């Protein structure tokens, strides 16, 4: 240690002088940050990139948060990595994300592990407008879409009415899903067989029958559009929002609502307990439910708004109109899924081989 | 070389200073994360708590006991070995021809081998997808020749092997080419002068001398294939499992970090063992 001190003294670079130098260098950044904090501070959201990230920036960050003086920083990445960041921050006093954007089931699993803040009217006032069938106390549903049977109108004469129609020999090798939707096929099969989405054992035989009838699998949801267009498949189990987008781009696809009901896909946002800027995170979730922010997503992505305060008008309202009578919308049984999801995944990956 | 002990120790010090930073970087960014990953692999998974601290081999035992996981490892080894064999079979003649080329077109020919490396593996894989998919180029040609029939190569092991070979072949060619360059052409001429046919000269003179390069190229190809992720996912589809996609699936879909960490170590250990043992298939005199 003596040697170190001597050598440092020789060059004049003591620890104290180094600290002073470093502080002087960092001063503009510190002052700038404080000045911004007085205007509303910042908030970091773990979000998927691409078009979705851009729409979040345009319809929530710039539209609602910016006027409040809150700077939004997007930490873009795939969902597994965003979820991993929340898990990794479990034993740390402060994490890196203030808000997590993820699918509802992933949010539930984190909430079940005690990693998410409880949400109610006191911290997110707009939560009172969340549609009753989507309301929970661990996430704010941002957008949602029912799972429907999307088919190519030019190749299917009579639209299917139920998921079990896919066992018809005419659909042999003509029914396909994205591998990412495997869990949703299993829950939809359970719904078809029992009327409840929470019976994995009852779903298994039906899923096996689909596999035996030539169920086709694609790595990504986008591959479904190409397969439907080329006639490789004629029907797929997919979110209504996707059909809306594909339709908008001129593809001849339509949707059939299964009579047993439609499982719901919910894209949600939640606040990790490790969030460094919780106050702003709650403000962000409140902004997510503002009608102006919700309309932007309905218009650009074809998803349904989750707030009863949001009224769609004109062409968008027409495009997203649900049939009358309204189809049954089934919220996933989160506790059941959290308990059985891994078993389902393991069973699925062996069943499809 | 000086026999002065002081000069020798100064030499060691200099060498230490030169390799020190690189060693520190390797320890910080490779060894430490690997140690952490290995520690994770000994933890337990819990559906609610996700990862529970423990000291157990159960993740490794699960892998060994479940035939599904063993099958995935077997498929991975088989694909990697097939790709390596194909790359060597196609790469050797091309590399030899390039090495012996004396025309002004040699630079252009070398450039043709290097150009694919300018394009990312994922982008090249997407190119294969366009070629293999329903309604793609190959399917359209087949449908034209025989209406009503389709050419289904997408989401098959063959598509994965073709995709991987296209990515790895340039590496193998470049490795082998530099080895063939170093073999004196007069040796072949001497063999020819002594009455050996070109094929015999290749087999008895060139190939044994190039064996070190063949082993290096083969090892490079095998390691890259064993760890392939994008190509198996995009061209193999969800039904085709290799180790790297399986590992990611356990990490992302199941949130099972301990088992994913164990899979990572099993993959690393298998790759290391096989690449260490493979050169022993070659007679010892050719390995030197």
Descriptive report:
In chain A, β1, α3 and β2 form a beta-alpha-beta unit. In chain A, strands 1, 2, 3, 4, 5, 6, 7, 8, 9, 10 and 11 form an 11-stranded mixed sheet that branches. Chain A is an alpha/beta fold and 353 residues long. In chain A, α3 runs antiparallel to α11 and α6 packs across α7. Chain A starts with a helix and ends with a helix. The chains are: A alpha/beta (353), B mainly alpha (288). Chains A and B meet through α4, α8 and α13 of A and α11 of B.
Shape of chain A: globular
As laid out across the biggest beta sheet of chain B, the strand order is 1-2
Regions with little confidence, pLDDT below 50 for 5+ residues of chain B: none
Derived structural class of chain A: alpha/beta
* Major sheet size, sense and barrel closure of chain A: 11 strands, mixed
Q: Overall mean pLDDT score of chain B?
A: 91
H/E element string of chain A?
HHEHEHEHEEHHEHEHEEHHEHEH
Average pLDDT for all residues of chain A: 88
The greatest interface between two protein chains, and residues involved on each side, is: A-B, 30 and 25 residues
Helix content of chain B: over 70%
Q: Write down how many β-strands of chain B occur, each being a DSSP E stretch of 2 or more residues.
A: 2
* N- and C-termini, Cα separation of chain A: 63 Å
Beta-strand proportion of chain A: 15-25%
Q: Give the oligomer, counting copies of the same chain as homo and different chains as hetero.
A: heterodimer
Strand/helix succession of chain B: HEEHHHHHHHHHHHH
Cα gyration radius of chain A (Å): 24 Å
- Rough outline of chain B: globular
Helix content bin of chain A: 40-55%
Beta-strand fraction estimate of chain B? under 5%
């Amino acid at each position: 240690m003596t040697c170190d001190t001597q050598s440092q003294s020789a060059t004049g670079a003591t620890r104290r002088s180094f600290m002073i130098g470093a502080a002087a260098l960092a001063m503009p950044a510190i002052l700038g940050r404080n000045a911004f904090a007085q205007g509303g501070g910042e908030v970091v959201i773990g979000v998927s990139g691409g078009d979705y990230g851009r729409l979040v920036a345009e319809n929530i960050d710039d539209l609602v948060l910016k006027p409040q003086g809150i700077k939004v920083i997007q930490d873009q990445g795939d969902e597994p990595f965003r979820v991993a960041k929340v898990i990794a921050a479990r034993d740390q006093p402060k994490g890196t994300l203030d808000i997590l954007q993820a699918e509802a089931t992933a949010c539930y699993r984190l909430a079940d592990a005690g990693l998410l803040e409880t949400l109610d009217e006191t911290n997110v006032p707009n939560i009172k407008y969340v549609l009753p069938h989507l309301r929970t106390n661990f996430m704010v549903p941002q957008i949602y879409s029912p799972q429907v049977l999307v088919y190519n109108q030019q190749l299917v004469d009579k639209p299917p009415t139920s998921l079990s129609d896919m066992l018809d020999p005419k659909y042999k090798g003509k029914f396909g899903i994205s591998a990412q939707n495997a869990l949703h096929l299993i829950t939809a099969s359970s719904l078809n067989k029992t009327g409840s989405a929470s019976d994995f054992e009852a779903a298994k035989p039906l899923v096996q029958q689909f596999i035996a009838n030539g169920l086709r699998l694609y790595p990504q949801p986008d591959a479904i559009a190409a397969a439907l267009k080329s006639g490789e498949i004629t029907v797929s189990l997919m979110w209504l929002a996707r059909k809306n987008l594909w339709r908008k781009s001129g593809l001849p696809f339509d949707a059939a609502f299964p009579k047993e009901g439609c499982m719901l896909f919910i894209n949600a946002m939640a606040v990790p307990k490790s969030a460094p800027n919780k106050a702003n995170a709650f403000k962000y979730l409140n902004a997510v439910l503002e009608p102006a922010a919700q309309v932007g997503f309905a218009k650009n992505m074809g998803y349904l708004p989750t707030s009863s305060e949001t009224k769609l008008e004109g062409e968008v309202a027409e495009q997203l109109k649900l049939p009358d009578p309204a189809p049954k919308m089934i919220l996933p049984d989160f506790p059941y899924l959290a308990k059985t999801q891994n078993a389902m995944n393991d069973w699925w990956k062996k069943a499809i081989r | 070389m000086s026999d002065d002990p002081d000069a020798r120790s100064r030499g060691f010090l200099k060498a230490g200073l030169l390799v020190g930073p690189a060693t520190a970087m390797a320890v910080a960014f490779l060894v430490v994360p690997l140690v952490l990953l290995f520690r994770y692999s000994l933890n337990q998974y819990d559906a609610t708590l996700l990862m529970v601290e423990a000291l157990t081999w159960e993740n490794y035992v699960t892998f060994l006991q479940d035939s599904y996981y063993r099958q995935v490892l077997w498929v991975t080894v088989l694909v990697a070995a097939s790709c390596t064999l194909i790359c060597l079979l196609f790469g050797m003649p091309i590399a030899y021809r390039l090495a012996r080329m004396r025309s002004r077109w040699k630079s252009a020919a070398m450039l043709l081998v290097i150009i694919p490396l300018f394009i990312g593996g994922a982008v090249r894989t997407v190119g294969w997808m366009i070629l293999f998919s329903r309604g793609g180029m190959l399917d359209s040609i087949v449908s034209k020749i025989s209406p009503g029939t389709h050419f289904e190569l997408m989401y098959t092991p063959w598509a994965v092997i073709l995709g991987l070979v296209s990515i790895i072949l340039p590496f193998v060619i470049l490795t082998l080419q530099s080895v063939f360059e170093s073999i004196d052409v007069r040796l072949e001429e001497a063999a020819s002068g002594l009455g050996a046919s070109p094929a015999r000269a290749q087999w008895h003179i060139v190939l044994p001398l190039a064996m070190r390069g063949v082993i290096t190229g083969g090892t490079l190809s095998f390691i890259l294939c064993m760890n392939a992720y994008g190509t198996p996912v995009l061209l193999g589809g969800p039904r085709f499992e290799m180790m790297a996609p399986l590992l990611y699936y356990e990490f992302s879909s199941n949130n099972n970090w301990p088992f994913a960490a164990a899979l990572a170590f099993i993959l690393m250990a298998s790759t290391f063992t096989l690449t260490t043992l493979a050169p022993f298939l070659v007679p010892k005199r050719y390995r030197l």
